[in-house]
Amino acid sequence: MNKSGLVKIFLRSFFIHATLNFRRMQNLGFAMAIIPVIREWNLTKKDAEGLLTRHLQMFNTHPYFSAAVIGSVIRLEEEQIKDKEANPSADTVVVKQILTGPYAAIGDTFFWGALRPFAAIVACVLAYTGYVIAPLAFLLLYTPAHVWVRLKGFLEGYRRGKQGIEFIRILNLPRIAVRIRWVSLIVLAIWAALLLNSKEYLSFINLSGIVIKLVAIATILACLGLLKKRVSQFYILYGAALFFLLISSLKEF
Questions:
Q1: In the predicted model, what is the mean pLDDT of residues 121-150?
Q2: Where are the domains of the chain?
C-alpha cells in the first residue's frame, strides 16, 4: 500500500459507525473503509467480491480501535496476496474475531468509563467558575487522545500485522483508566467542598465553616470507603452528580 491509500483507509475508519446496524453491527463501515484496497491492488471482480464478502461478516469493537484492526487486516490480506497458496479467509477472519472483544472492553473502560467523564467533569467545573473555554477544554482533553490511538493503532497494525495488538497491550489503558477515575473523584470532592462552602448554594443551611469542612471530608472518606468495597466508580460519580442536583433543587425552596 502506498501512503495515499493508507491515508484514505484511515480517514474512512472514522465513519465506521455511520452505518451501524443491529444485524452485523459495524460490518458495512469496515467494508467501506477497505474499498481503497481494491483500487490500489487492481483486484479482479472475483477477488474483490471475495474480499468484501469476508469483511461484510459480523464485526463489532470500540470505534476508536477499529482502525487498529483495519491496519492488521490489510497487512494480512497483503501478505496472503503474495502467498498464492494461502487461504485468504483464514488469518484475517480469525484475527478480527480475536481482537474485537478485547479492543471493545479496553476502549469502553478507558474512553467511555474514564477519559470522557473526566473531561466532562473538568469542563463542568470550568463552566461553573465562569470560564467560557469550558467546551474547548473538554475537546482538548478528550480529542487528542482518541485521535492518537486511532492513528498510532492503525500504523502499528499495518506495520506488525498479527502483532499489532502489542501496541495496545503496551499502552496498558485499563491501568491508566483507574488513575483517571481517581483524579475525577478528587476533582469532584474538591468541587463538593467548594459548593458546601459557598453561600450562594447553601445559604439556606445555618452551619459553621468547620462543620461544612467536616461534612466535605466525610464525603471524601465515604467515597474512598465505597471504592474499597469495590463499588463501581460509575455509581460514585453519578451519585455525586445526583447530590449536586439535589442541592440545587433544595436551593429553590
A1: 89
A2: 1-171, 172-253
